[in-house]
């Protein structure tokens, strides 16, 4: 069951992070980023990686909060055991 919930949280978060990543970094050049007035001394790949990881974490938190706030009447049918076809192994 937890594997299914992880899928419900992480996959939409990945897609949302990808969209956010494309939108943000199409407008912002990593060479122009500054932290506390000082330029970042990271490679472009590192900035892109950190940016995507942060966007994915924020989107995952949003998806997880949505899942946690679902009413019990909606979660009850979903808490049934998974069949062999549903398992991710």
UniProtKB/TrEMBL annotation:
Transmembrane segments: 7-28, 48-72
Keywords: Membrane, Transmembrane, Transmembrane helix
Protein name: Transmembrane protein
């Amino acid at each position: 069951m937890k594997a299914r919930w992880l899928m419900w949280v992480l996959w939409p978060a990945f897609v949302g992070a990808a969209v956010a990543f494309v939108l943000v970094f199409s407008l912002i050049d990593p060479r122009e980023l500054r932290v506390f007035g000082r330029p970042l001394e990271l490679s472009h790949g590192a900035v892109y990686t950190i940016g995507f990881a942060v966007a994915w974490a924020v989107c995952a938190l949003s998806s997880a909060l949505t899942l946690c706030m679902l009413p019990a009447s909606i979660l009850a049918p979903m808490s049934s055991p998974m069949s062999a076809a549903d398992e991710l192994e």
